[in-house]
Amino acid sequence: MSSLGTIHSAFRRFALDAAGNMALTAALTLPVLGGAGLVAMEVSHMLSRKTQMQEIADGAAIHAARELRLGNATAEVIVAVARNHVEGAAAGRGLSLTFEGIVSADKKSITVNLTSDESLGLASSLGLVAPAVTVSSGAKVMGGAPVCSVILNASDKSSLYLEKSARLEAPQCSVYSNSKHTAAIGSKESATVKAAFICSAGGYEGASASYQPVPETDCPAFPDPLASRPAPSVGACDPAKQNLNVTGTGVYLTPGTYCGGLTISANTDVTLQPGVYVIKDGPLVLEKNVKFQGTGVGLYFTGSLAGMNLKKETSISLTAPKSGPMAGLLIYQDRSTPKDNEVFEISSDDAGTLLGTIYLPRGHLYLGGDKPVAQKSAYTIVVANKVRASAGPTLVLNSDYAASDVPVPNGLGPLSGNVRLQ
Length: 422
Prior knowledge:
Largest sheet: 24 strands, parallel
Structural class: alpha/beta
Low-confidence stretches: 1-33
Helix content: 10-25%
Number of domains: 2
């Protein structure tokens, strides 16, 4: 057989091998001939193109699968999202691709198929015909419901823990625990956890009847959806707001940096003007018979001892900002806080409106009252290092996102990012 015939035969074997690995080995072991070199170059080029196509298909599947979280998203819209991603990524790499997107009947997964019919370059002079390169990628939504709570702690027991008659109710959204401990989620006595979906990276303890539904275990960890969210700026300490102890009725507070913490004394009625309140190097404390309210308010905690104690016999009504650095964030703890598990306690008898997202990446949310919390809010989302409830509170995580114009942070609620490749 001639040298050209040998080369042609080797390339035909590549076309029949979808992965191309055996063909690459064959091409590289051919005699050192001018034509063989061209074929080896083409094989390498096609393998590189296949890798690029797979990256594009994976990205398109992930982007489109996130749209599956939206209850009103149609299959056509979901496929369009995937197609737009492919077209943009392909243009950026100089590729011409044929796209196919398929959404499953239950709208929980999407498959993206890509084909490239790019012609050969140098080896075409030898009369060789390039095989079509095809890739496929599928992505699916975990849980099938918007995410309204993520417990970030990765290893501890009882990172989500309820005891006595405490309850967590998230009827239309999902609750995730990232701890790999065999008892990452715990329920003791008559405490209950109810959600559309409960998922633990480790396990759970307590009677199965304490959970509705019973938690799924060994789930993949849910990455911190707010990890890239920029923190608001912290201004200089205002002498008028340092170690402040507020008393009286009809008191209005203004945004700014409250160094040394902020205490609202007993029998005080406070309204917060819209904006960001930085609580620095000290706690926010509400004493007995305090009324604490504000619309468009973000509370940012930073520095040592920057926790929160909202005591019993208080009334709280807070709504997060609609815009600005804390848009959608009601409570935000500095990620670089020195102390892990700083306590943020809500034991109020009247905390029905906590509209927005509570983000405590190093904090411990503790509920110690006897009344429902956040039940009047259109939505409440909790992302915290740990959550614990004792006595008789009910933490209600509503998910009526359309009923409020307070934005939901990306990666949570209807745009939850817990999507993975199949």
